[in-house]
Design goal:
single chain, about 230 residues, alpha/beta, about 35% helix
Length: about 230
Amino acid sequence: MGSKVADLLEARGVEVVSGGLDDGVDYIEGTRVAEVLEGVDTIINVLNTNRFDEEGAVGFFDGTTRALTTAAEEAGVTHHVLLSIVGVGDEDGSDIGYYLGKVAQERALKAGSIPYTIVRSTQFQGYVPVLADQHTVDGKVLAPRDLIQPVELDELVALLAEVTLSGGPLGEVEIAGPERFRMDDLLRATLAVAGDPRDVVTVESSGAEDALVPRGEYLVGKTLYPIRDIPLAS
């Protein structure tokens, strides 16, 4: 995500400073943080972790955001753009550890003094096969009838660049794809087209069925999901 946004901004003449682990920047340890923020006007925060447990996700997202915010305040940064997830902050949202980590991240951002824009996105279209893997138990995909509205990644990248170039802050912005499905229907069709023999078993949802789709106003992507003949959800 970060490299895609950087490439797009650089193509538009924006000077971009990369500040990830590959650049030797560690926001937990504080390594090179002040250095990379020198002269920076806007932060685009797409930091991520592979920890999906609550302790790991909350610790990472809360810790890195607070450390980054503190350093950014000292550096005179004027706009903090944060990538988040649609549904974060809703009382009846998901209780998945990663999701709770993003909730903590938003709270940490808002606790700081830097003007911000939170860009909340639905699931990426290209990630749907991985979503099937994450729901696989004993060779079967256990999928609820939850609503899902996947967006094309490049459209989210373009939105992050647009928000950055706007000068902000814009508060909270949400984006979703143009089509809404039921998760079990979407995974079943995706696996069938790929020739994946795994059965998709419909299971009861662990939360609100609309926890992962926008509930208010949102920007609508233009790219349709690449597989057709999937029943649309009302």
